[in-house]
Amino acid sequence: MSEHPLLSVRDLKVDFPTRRGTLKAIDGISFDIARGEILGVVGESGAGKSLTGSAIIGLLEPPGRISGGEVRLKGDRIDNLPAKAMRHIRGKRIGMIFQDPLTSLNPLFTIGEQIVETIMAHLPVSEREARERAVHLLDEVGIPAASQRLGAYPHQFSGGMRQRVVIALALCAEPELVIADEPTTALDVSVQAQIIRLLKRICRDHGASVMLITHDMGVIAETCDRVAVMYSGRIAEIGPVADVVRAPRHPYTIGLMGAIPTLDATEDRLTQIPGSMPRLDAIPSGCAFNPRCAHVFARCRQERPEPIDVGSSKVACWLAEEDGSRTIVDKKKADQLS
Amino acid sequence: MLAFTIRRLLQAILVMLVVALIAFTLFRYVGDPVNQMVGVETSAEEREALRERLGLNAPVMVQFARFIGHAALFDFGTSYQFKQPVADMIGKRLPATLELSLVSALLALLVGIPMGVYTGLNRDSALSKFFLSVSLIGISLPTFLIGILLIFVFSVNLQWLPSFGRGEVVQIGWWSTGLLTTSGLKALVLPAITLGLFQMTLIMRLVRAEMLEVIRTDYIKFARARGLPDRIVHFRHALKNTLVPVITIAGLQLGTIIAFAIITETVFQWPGMGLLFLQAVQNVDIPIMAAYLMLIAFLFVVINLIVDILYFLVDPRLRAERAVH
């Protein structure tokens, strides 16, 4: 068993059948998450980041469906499990944290009720033990006077505190993997860093791996071990954070890094990638990024590049394959590459 | 909570005063009360004596105050037609109407809510589509037609259930109940269905719409992501969030059921207040009409008060506590 990665996604495809044809929202992505690892998933809105998370945990909203590939948790397939078996994986083995803590908690139940019911749904404990555990968890995520706050309703907490409660809820049955879908996007900037640090610490303490979905490269750089860059439902580049951030190989990743403002930048304007991500019903043939790519050549428009090993990363770009013959024009990045 | 209740009580009293003013105006100015009471051959002196005895010569404000004072003691005068105290007549009829209305409301809730939950969760199933089609009939057919259809099928053709009246009743103090005898229960079935069908379909559609809304929310998605069983997600987390609008509508509808039991009571010759009211209208029996108006207003006010208090119990956000950060 131990040779299996904790989570293994192979050639995962998610379709949305519509009246005007099938939209391929996720089109064949593969990646692994090792035990204790934090994988960042980054990309623009609509790149399929959140859908990947929903597909793994089996909560795709109809008509969305997994149309191909497989998801394995410690070697066992989980993408085709019956609903009841999948329920025992959700919460128990894979926890999930959503974007908006203000709406993630049911407003009509106390946080104690919500934590206790979750613990009791997964662990064979009495209600009293579940309550003790709930207090312990709230304490761990930094809710002051936890035992008195069990009877409080979500609206009595601030956004940051609610996200702490959500983290406690996601971790209360000791899952092996936590999927955090933009856990700080809806929060005040001043508490974002706190929550990310908390998430990282608590997952390490509980030995849980994390799939951190975000569009914030800063968060990725600080938090993650590896990062996957998604574009149009495909993975453009995946590799160790240090390599991808400092030496991006895919022109899209390069553009993404270039778009991060720095304090010592001399330009007045932020650099940006021209154009926008294609709509799902108009993904170009070949590489999905080709209309926006500065280095596009004929092959990009005809054949879709598969991820190939480049150093410790995988990059889905024909440039990477023909690295010897073509050089990336961006001088600054080229320097970093060597 | 207490301050809120007191505030609502004061508002309720204000509403009742306004209704009393309308009832009083009705009583005093729709025709001359004296003309309604006496015959054609009564002399002018006798009329004047009666006018004096009834206090109709006093200033309007005094009369109004007197009317309210009497109304507060459930004294609404004497029926022109029956020459009996109106309060007694209504007291005799009230149990019949309240029993019919409450049974209809219970029927509407107990059938309507589960049907709404089912159709909300299984929107594409054949049974849901069947329920929705049937509910269209419930919403669009007029009550009297449903009543007559039910009588035709179950009383005339099948002869299972009586077509009119209340059956045998048992007297408990001043309250006469038909719920304790077989014939009373049998007599209740058709009118209760007739009266409750519209509300039932309304509640079903409301719960369905609310469920569709609620199951798309983040907290339901998060509840699923926590691996809670469907039963808990649907009936604990989702259903409770649909309750606030359902309580509002159900409360208002209960008032409507009581007020509009008139038609059903007429179709089934149910000896309730509605039937009494209809007779009063035909005979311009103003005291009964005024008393009925006051009573229905009172019931609406009480129901609204209960609904407001139920909100508090269901939704913690309404309880006046300050958020703690």
TrEMBL record, chain A:
GO biological process, one term: transmembrane transport
Entry GO terms, CC: plasma membrane
ABC transporter domain segment(s): 9-257
PANTHER family per the UniProt record, alphabetical: DIPEPTIDE TRANSPORT ATP-BINDING PROTEIN DPPD, OLIGOPEPTIDE TRANSPORT ATP-BINDING PROTEIN APPD
Lineage: Bacteria, Pseudomonadati, Pseudomonadota, Alphaproteobacteria, Hyphomicrobiales
CDD domains: ABC_NikE_OppD_transporters
GO molecular function: ATP binding; ATP hydrolysis activity
UniProt record similarity statement: Belongs to the ABC transporter superfamily.
Keywords, ordered alphabetically: ATP-binding, Cell membrane, Membrane, Nucleotide-binding, Transport
Membrane-topology descriptor: Peripheral membrane protein
SUPFAM superfamilies linked to this entry: P-loop containing nucleoside triphosphate hydrolases
Record's keyword annotation contains rRNA-binding: no
Name of the protein this chain belongs to: ABC transporter ATP-binding protein
Main location: membrane
Family matches, as NCBIfam families: oligo_HPY
Organism (species): Stappia albiluteola
PROSITE patterns: ABC_TRANSPORTER_1 (PS00211), ABC_TRANSPORTER_2 (PS50893)
Subcellular location: Cell inner membrane
Pfam family, one: ABC_tran
Automatic annotation (TrEMBL), chain B:
Principal localisation: membrane
Topology class, membrane: Multi-pass membrane protein
InterPro entries in the record: BPD_transp_1_N, MetI-like, MetI-like_sf
Lipoprotein listed as a keyword: no
PROSITE patterns the UniProt entry points to: ABC_TM1
GO CC entries: plasma membrane
A GO BP entry: transmembrane transport
Stretches assigned to the ABC transmembrane type-1 domain: 94-311
Pfam families linked: BPD_transp_1, BPD_transp_1_N
Residue ranges crossing the lipid bilayer per the database entry: 12-30, 100-118, 130-154, 174-198, 243-268, 288-314
Location(s), subcellular: Cell membrane
Keywords of the record: Cell membrane, Membrane, Transmembrane, Transmembrane helix, Transport
Family: Belongs to the binding-protein-dependent transport system permease family.
Protein name: ABC transporter permease
UniProt organism field: Stappia albiluteola
